[in-house]
Batch of 2 targets.
Target 1
Amino acid sequence: MRKISADSAKILPSDITPYHRYLSRRTLLAGGLGLAAAQGLGGFARNAFGQSPAALTYVRNAGFSVADPPNSYKDITTYNNYYEFGTDKSDPSENAQKFRTQPWNVTIGGEAELTGSFSLEDILKPHPLEERVYRLRCVEAWSMVVPWVGFPLGDLLKRFKPTSKAKFVEFKTLFDPKQMPGERSSVLEWPYVEGLRMDEAMHPLTLMAVGLYGKVLPNQNGAPLRLIVPWKYGFKGIKAIVSIKFTERAPRTTWAGAASNEYGFFANVNPAVDHPRWSQASERHIGASAFGPRQPTLAFNGYAAQVAGLYSGMDLRKFF
Amino acid sequence: MWQIRWIGKPIVFAACLIPALHIGIGALNAADVLHIGGISLGADPVKVMLHTCGRWTLNFLMITLCMTPLKDLTHWTLWLRFRRMFGLFAFFYVLLHFSVYLLLDQSGKLGALWQDIVKRPYITIGMLGLLLLIPLALTSTNKAQRRLGRRWTQLHRLIYAIAILGVWHFWWQVKKDIREPLLYVCGLTILLGYRLWKQRRTLARVSVARFARTDAP
């Protein structure tokens, strides 16, 4: 990956369609029968209206993108870890199709000047969208390359004016067992909780994603709003976010709570620290030849130059 | 009963090969060697191959262990005529499982294999189960059975330990959702529990018989 540059400065506000305008466009699209099909999406991964995902307007952020070729849309949207919709990789794409992402509200709480419940439109309105091609490394030792569409989480958090007490950010997924069949089982504690340290949350690489391959995020990928932290294991990327809370103490995150010896709060990709039951030194790249070799895992998933400084002086074996 | 030998066994044999055929074709499809529609191993073919072979190893171990209880229940000895075939299929699938793991998952690196065996308990016990199956497969012929006599029966009781190791191996490697391994634990508990119960009953009868004998004038 190239170093982070001022490439994002190339994006002019005039280049961007605000999310609310895109949404009204989608309503138009919903009326325009067959238009979505004409876009050649083949009806794959339909959204709540039975339409193919609507296209987003965004600017590609090359400075924040890896050069590796992205995985296919099919692989990215049918091979998902999203236990709210089932524990098999194929479950989310099958069980999330009827999931309703409208209306959607996000509660902002905790140590900030501005708190309350906000509609998704209000959350997204001021943020220009950009595409970033990121590596994704799952804690299960497989990886993908995904072209996300979103905006920096830090830009969103700043709007709520976190106080000096805000040391961490806690995120929660929707708890709705009627819509999310996985939440009826006790495989994990629900709702799913994730968290970041404030400096991690404010890091320019940390992304709030609303899209994938230039289109609205399919439900199985965490629609309507999900977190992407490319230097951490995939489970940090909480999906279908309904709550963001500024806290003084580290939140108790779901996987760390389920097995604290296997999953840490930080969960930085680290080939030198194995999962107790499997090696993290290498990964199987989804979409690579089945008969090819595994690829070596990179420290901080290849983003060490940008983020290693956040952890200087920390024992990463202890804080895994 | 020529029908068993010439009709029953070949049909069952062919059926036992279906999972292997499925992943074989799927693997060749994934490698772009074949293009047979409808058979796909998904986004992570190696994982599917690995898990399918592992599951079928456990399935065949369970099926093998079902034969004696089925014989007892139905009073048909016919079941026992299939037991060796099922046992050997367990061995066949564990060899496939191991080969996929070593050759595809670990790219044939013996160093990585050794590292895994030493460092990862679930692989240690899985390997142990595989090694213990080898003498059973080697002594599965009629000739070996005759030659070993009573010791053959003792040796083949290893299957109980192997089944426990196999299920344990599965239990230890799942991330969080233990429902499927739990199913195997339940099945195995019933199958092994049945044997314990039967043995106790037989022992009780023997001791009653002995007591009766010593008590007699």
Target 2
Amino acid sequence: MSDVLAGLGRVLAAEWTKLRSVRSTAWAAAAAIGLTVLLGVLICAAVDTSGGGADCRPGAPGCGDEDVVLNSLGGVYIGQIAVVALAVLAATSEYDRGTVSTTFAAVPRRLRVVAAKIGVVGAIAFVVGLAASAASFLAGQPILHGNGFTVANGYPAASLADEPTARAVAGTALYLVAVALLALGTGLILRRAGSAIAAVLVLLYVPTMVALTLPADVRDVVQSVAPMSAGLAVQRTVDRFDSVPVGPWAGLGVAGAWAAAVLLAAAWFVRNRDV
Amino acid sequence: MSGVDTAVVRAEWTKLRSLPGNAVAVVAVVALTVGLSAFMCAVGHTDATRPGQGDDDVVVNSLRGVYIGQIAVVAFAVGTVAAELTTGVIRTTFTAVPGRRAVAVAKAITLSGAVLASGLATSVLSFLVCQPLLHASGFRPPAYPIVALTEPAVVRAVTGTALYLTALAVLGLAAGAIARHAAPSITALAGLLLAPVALGSFLPNALADPLQRYTPIAGLAIQRTVHDASAPIGPWSGLGVTWVWALAASAVAVWVIERRDV
């Protein structure tokens, strides 16, 4: 057992060296944090508390039911694109250059390589994700406060010490881990960066794009099983008329299940295929 | 037209069609695109029964698969040029044809032709597959009169979708040539095409409207056949915006290609 662990430790160290020594990793990590915070700030600057007029029905849009935590974390819709690129490249750049043959000559137990890539990519995604979501939250709250989201208007200040807020911020990082592992698995299966990035982005965004025009019953099903719309339920701290009908942790579980399924398929391909 | 060398165009066409993976990719993408359109038409439903009551755009619904098709077109276009640049085969190409602008023009012509033809086939197929499905979902006269492929608005939507995809192919080709690597170009373009629509309900109008008006997705307005006063941009101006992106990027790409070592 200790031999296995020692072996895995060396492979992990090798994968970490590979990933941190290419420029694309640092670029993508910086882009993920920068884009997430930037879009989060833009959203916070543009939302207001208007709409609470005499004709206001409970739960209708703009009727004092804005989710100030979710709004400040909205930047992940763009930031995740950089995480996808980072994770796909962690798999495909070795196939592009053929160095994967060297990797498998050095570590013939291929699943150990896959496990090490999962560990390294998952850890980077979590750290980057947590930095991005915490920074977005902290940058967004004062802007929202300035836009009228104050106690007087029914919006008590959100704090990272509160359970739903902490869950939303940490959950966003976990969601990005799921997205990164989904992308890593897709990269290992398709072996081409372009195809893998395109496939993952279609899987993430297209269900949400078409859901807007689907009848309510079908839309609820699509949004509850699609990785992005379900996974981002973890950011919700207020139940609204347009909330995806899945619980925060259950939704995150759906995104995790997608990642697990794709990684299983990837492990099968890596093990049973020529390189 | 100056700058077009038919021998170079034929050479580029041979490169494009002789990769076995390309044919597989085209069939898969057409199937996914028509499949998404058919799904949207099959699961939709309406309660409208009186004339004038129906306000859904059944033509847009039948062409919804473009959300997938557009990403495939971009990935394919970027991949085509990036593969030649990263493997160094481009040096052979430029040795055989030292006029680099002619190579760029030939690549744009062959890829646009292929995408225009397959995009048109996909749009027509999507439309034809969808009409009976919509009918079964309750989109029937009198609320929803039968629409024929030959009606001017439908012709505009169907051919316009193919022209939109063609613009994206040119844009992808230019982006791939400028960046020389597939990953950054595809990431940037796919993000630009997908994120604004996915963010739609979430973004305040102050951010959403400019995205629909000035980014390449403006071209999707060409699919609209029902008048919508609140639409950020008209059908033809929207398609024009996408083509402005494509042509501007092409100009930059040609400028870069003629000045850069390979």
